[in-house]
Amino acid sequence: MKKVLSFDFGASSGRAMLATLENGKISIEEIHRFSNDTVIVNGTMYWDILRLFFEIKTSITKAVNNGGFDAIGIDTWGVDFGLIDKRGKLLGNPVHYRDTRTEGIPERVFEEISKDEIYGRTGTQFMRINTLYQLMYLKYNEPEMLENAEKLLLIPDLFAYMLTGEIKSEASIASTTNLYDPHKRDWDFELIERLGLPKKLFPEVIKGGNVYGMLSDEICEELGCQKVPVIAVCEHDTASAVAATPSDADDFVYISCGTWSLFGIENEQPIINDEVCKLNFTNEGGFNDTVRFLKNIMGLWLIQESRRQWKREGEEVGFDVLEKEALAAEPFKCFVDVDDPTFETAGNLPGRVKKYCEKTGQYVPQTRGEIMRCIYQSIAMKYKYTVNALNKISGRSYTKINMLGGGIKDKLLCSMTADACNVEVLAGPTEATVMGNIAVVYYALGELADFADIRKTVSASTDIKHYTPANPADWENAYAKYLEVTGQN
User: Fold this and answer.
1) Which residues are catalytic?
2) Could you tell me which of 387, 407, 405, 404 has the C-alpha nearest to residue 396?
């Protein structure tokens, strides 16, 4: 029985899972969990990349002591990267996408190449955190970094390089950069040249299910492990989650729920036109050359950061308590646009929610419960807005939504989604990203036959919870107010 060691890195934590495949079902065991703590130095927010690699090594040692493993898969968040010099050394710690260095950079870039042209070429949602704008910040302000760099490696590619010495980029993670051609399934080198970025930075793109390389002799000797392959799964965590969607239909809607909510459909080809540009949808790579047509929505980040603020103020409160307080508060008194830039960065989110409501002439929430109610129902209304847009763009009418990921532990969000969107919600798997990661590794090892076999296996390994609309009419009545105060008419 082959074992898979899967690494899943999120914005605040990471974990290593050891998996087996038996009788058509995947079983997973968490063998190591660790925090992913950002470090601010002289005003810049960094990822502690060496600490994270230390945790990878610790996980490998634990897996060896647990009977060993036959392959490794890694997924992380998108857009962020490390730069490697000619000697193969890392040029500084990767900068966190929430760092403020890219503020104002997109507008400066659009003076060189229009926003419409960049979208027309890449089909990528406009966000200042995108790799393109991070690189242009370096070009404008720290050109010596680009001059000294030989290769750019996105975070999962960087970890794979540290393990194998191989320099490659997996397609789904490359597609988050705003520098990827979704038609050619490769870097847009013409755009890269016009932006004045070095072409040499961008490594060979490989598909999910291919092999980066074998664990290096150095790693095997240090950690006492066998020389096994590191598989390029769908390295972007959302791509792994979508690959694990337990649907037997070719056409479905998904929401991958966590710090971000990734809301979309799966296509064979990208959708790029003026309408989707205006609505700010993105086209990103998925398993088996699919295109994930989706919108990034700031999801549970607002709840997570609000809780952190209350903890800073001395209020030790759990998510379960916040959920109960939200449910007890009067509905539909106020809304925010969860994607408003004011909510992008860490800080006093409850205070910003109050200011938004005051600025837009609404009732200003006073209690924790009222603030939580405002956030919860605003996320659900954003989902309603997005599914309506998907119906219009695709010409279809979706009656079910597959919700995936850790966010589905929040039953209130799932039930509000069913109510707001007036659809049945199928919630599961909670461990969608890990399951997708592991399933693609088993595909690479020849244990699963194809994409259909992957989804069939995940479905057999998952307990799906169903939510049906309870009071959709109330949400429909409040929707006009939501659109008005958020300016999304």
Assistant:
1) 237
2) 387
Q: Name the strands in the sheet holding 253-257, side by side, starting at the edge strand that comes first in the sequence.
A: 282-285, 291-298, 260-267, 253-257, 400-404, 424-427, 465-467
In the prediction, which pLDDT does 287 show?
A: 95
Spatial separation of the C-alpha atoms in residues 138 and 195, rounded to whole Å:
12
Nearest CA-CA partner of 381 in 265, 248, 475? 475
Q: Where are the beta strands (DSSP E) in 240-369?
A: 253-257, 260-267, 282-285, 291-298
- The pLDDT mean for the chain works out to 96
**What tens digit of pLDDT does each residue of 290-336 get?**
999 999 999 899 999 999 999 999 999 999 999 999 999 999 999 99
Q: What is the mean pLDDT of residues 35-54?
A: 96
In the block, tokens 């955190």 appear at: 129
CATH for the 245-428+449-489 domain, from 3.40.1110.10, 3.20.20.10, 2.160.20.10, 3.30.420.40: 3.30.420.40
Q: In a 10 Å sphere around its CB, with 0-12 CB exposed, 13-18 middle and 19+ buried, how is residue 226 labelled?
A: exposed
Coil, strand or helix: which one is 225?
coil
